[in-house]
Specification:
This protein is mostly helical. The protein has helices at 3-21, 26-47, 56-59, 62-74, 92-127, 135-159, 164-187, 193-204, and strands at 84-85, 88-89. Strands 1-2 form a two-stranded antiparallel ribbon.
């Protein structure tokens, strides 16, 4: 089985899993989203196991894990009903059907986003040992998906309406992890990890 097929399979399984979790009662979803994130780590490591070494067990796997968790948390805010759209009014059945279509489309896009992330992380893992022409494109995709992941988390955190220092701590933690993998992807070297950590702390602050 080629890596691309594995990437597609992992993306499909995780996106379908997130979609199925959306049918669980709201109170029980968080646990399942955490389990899905752990599963994302395991499956991503399985796909690119041959290329993982040292700090890459963390740096390469941060984005797919956080993307899955962030996408799951963001799905809390997807509509259950769409009573009107572009000036049209819908009855209850149609409003539910349109909301279901929007939710399904969201999880399809989540699967495509995860597939792009897995391809990006694979390019990073290969580029860390030899030159590869796709590195610049991978960095661009990685940056965009980092922003999307941040959007998922920051929207969720702000929606919790916690006390200001609670919001600050959560935003700090998310920003540090996303910044760390972003700085690592710039040069893909294990040297100067302390400097990357310090820069990530500054960005998170």
């Amino acid at each position: 089985m080629s890596k691309r097929v594995k990437f597609g399979l992992v993306s499909f399984l995780l996106s379908v899993g997130l979609w199925l979790i959306s049918f669980v009662s709201v109170d029980g979803r968080l646990t399942f989203y955490i389990v899905a994130s752990v599963l994302a780590y395991v499956l991503t490591a399985w796909v690119i196991f041959e290329d993982l070494k040292g700090v890459e067990w963390i740096s390469l796997l941060i984005l797919p894990v956080m993307f899955v968790l962030g996408a799951g948390l963001f799905s809390y805010y997807l509509p259950v009903l769409v009573p009107s759209l572009v000036g049209l009014e819908f009855d209850l059945g149609m409003a539910r059907m349109i909301a279901s279509v929007i939710r399904l489309l969201y999880f399809v896009l989540t699967g495509l986003g995860l597939y792009a992330i897995l391809l990006t992380e694979n390019i990073f893992s290969v580029a860390s040992v030899r030159s590869i022409a796709l590195l610049r494109a991978a960095r661009s995709v990685g940056f965009i998906m980092t922003l999307v992941t941040g959007l998922f988390f920051f929207h969720t955190i702000l929606s919790l309406k916690l006390i200001f220092w609670g919001v600050g701590l959560l935003v700090f933690a998310v920003s540090f992890l996303l910044s760390f993998q972003g700085f690592w992807s710039v040069d893909l070297k294990t040297e100067n990890m302390g400097e990357k950590a310090r820069l990530s702390l500054v960005c998170a602050f």
